[in-house]
Write a structure and sequence with these properties.
The chain has about 325 residues and is α/β, with parallel strands linked by helices. It has two domains: about 5-210, Spore Coat Polysaccharide Biosynthesis Protein SpsA, Chain A (Alpha-Beta Complex), CATH 3.90.550; about 235-320, no CATH class. Helix content is about 40%, strand content about 20%. It has helices at about 15-25, 50-55, 75-85, 105-110, 130-135, 160-165, 180-190, 210-215, 220-230, 250-260, 265-285, 295-300, 300-320; strands at about 5-10, 35-40, 60-65, 90-95, 100, 115-125, 140, 155-160, 190-205, 205-210. The strands form two sheets. It has an eight-stranded mixed beta sheet. Strands 7-10 form a two-stranded antiparallel ribbon. Helix 9 (about 220-230) packs across helix 13 and helix 10 (about 250-260) runs antiparallel to helix 11. The longest helix has 21 residues, at about 300-320. The N and C termini lie far apart (about 55 Å).
């Protein structure tokens, strides 16, 4: 029986979590001879190749390993290697820090009996541990998707292979954002992507340091490139040019600085008060959990730095790619 589904996993130096991902795919309820696993290794140095080749010896389904030889790095290039080498007419994407539910593939495949459907996005839930204490001192990184959203994360999504080839696969210029770019390339051609809660994946929960998180914000520049490539997405933006409501909060601070320099002190204090009220409303009074208010107030500086740097890189991207957004 020929392979119907190809599962593509891009990976880079995540040997231990990749092993959990692969084990969850070995335990699928879908017939083992009807799906294959393709591991696309983006030049790992932690023994990933040895792990995969060892697992191949007793794998209940077909598993293939490829080293990414493209001059481009990142998950986009790795996933493209998977697409090029996939034997299945349906390609499922999962990340190397995720665990698939046992009926993940089995619940996804029937959607493709409908010829009008090109993709199906699944539900993604965070794996424990989730720690309130860690969230105070670190930045939580995970994925939670419980309904259809605009970014179509490739930690849990299936597509028809022929459609992926038609749009040229993933654009290596985007990282992050390569998954949203691909989905919107398909949507703009009239293809249909649906959502199902029954297609379930669990995503690891990790914590990163605040400086490392701020460094990651540099990738906000790419949003301008995304809008330039997919101008239809402007309809989803506030006033068609505000990329995130959080980018509005630092603006009164900037105007306050200008007003101070020109000697308009009344306007300066008014704008400072406006900025403080905005932050209190958006970053402290976000829900009825009053016990968290003192911690959120103490985190004022952290919120401001995140929002200000995010705005800075968004505007920098707008200038770089000549696309007006903030």
């Amino acid at each position: 029986m020929s392979v119907k589904v190809s599962i593509v996993i891009p990976t880079f130096n995540r040997k231990e979590s990749l092993k959990k991902t692969l084990e969850s795919l070995f335990n699928q309820t879908y017939p083992k001879d009807k799906y294959e696993i393709i591991v696309c290794d983006d030049k790992s140095t932690d023994g990933t190749e040895g792990l995969v080749k060892e697992l191949m010896k007793n794998s209940p389904c077909k598993i293939r390993y490829f080293k990414v030889k493209s001059k481009y790095k990142g998950p986009a290039a790795a996933r493209n290697v998977g697409i090029e080498n996939a034997d299945g007419e349906i390609i499922g994407f999962i990340d190397d820090d995720c665990v698939a539910s046992p009926n993940w593939i089995e619940n996804a495949v029937p959607f493709f009996d409908d010829e009008t459907i090109t993709g199906v996005q699944g539900c993604t839930l965070p794996l424990p541990p989730s720690s309130k204490k860690n969230r105070i001192f670190w930045i939580e990184h995970t994925n939670k998707i419980t309904e259809q959203e605009d970014w179509y994360a490739t930690c849990n999504i299936f597509y028809r292979k022929k459609a992926l080839i038609e749009v040229g696969g993933f654009d290596h210029r985007f990282f992050p954002g390569e998954d949203a770019d691909l989905a919107w390339s398909l949507l703009e051609k009239g293809y249909k992507i649906v959502f199902s809660r029954d297609i379930l994946v669990y995503h690891e929960t990790n914590y990163i340091s605040f400086p490392k998180y701020l460094k990651k914000l540099k990738k906000q520049e790419l949003f301008a490139l995304f809008i330039k490539k997919h101008p239809i997405y402007r309809k989803k933006l506030m006033l068609r040019f505000i990329s995130s409501e959080k980018n509005l909060y630092p603006i009164p601070i900037l105007f306050a600085a200008v007003s101070y320099l020109i000697g308009s002190y009344f306007l300066f204090y008014l704008l400072i008060l406006t900025a403080i009220m905005l932050y209190l409303w958006a970053r402290v009074v976000v829900d009825a959990n009053f016990k968290m208010y003192p911690l959120r107030i103490l985190a004022f500086i952290r919120y401001f730095l995140i929002d200000f740097i995010s705005l800075f890189y968004t505007v920098k991207g707008a200038i770089r790619y000549k696309c007006f957004i903030i």
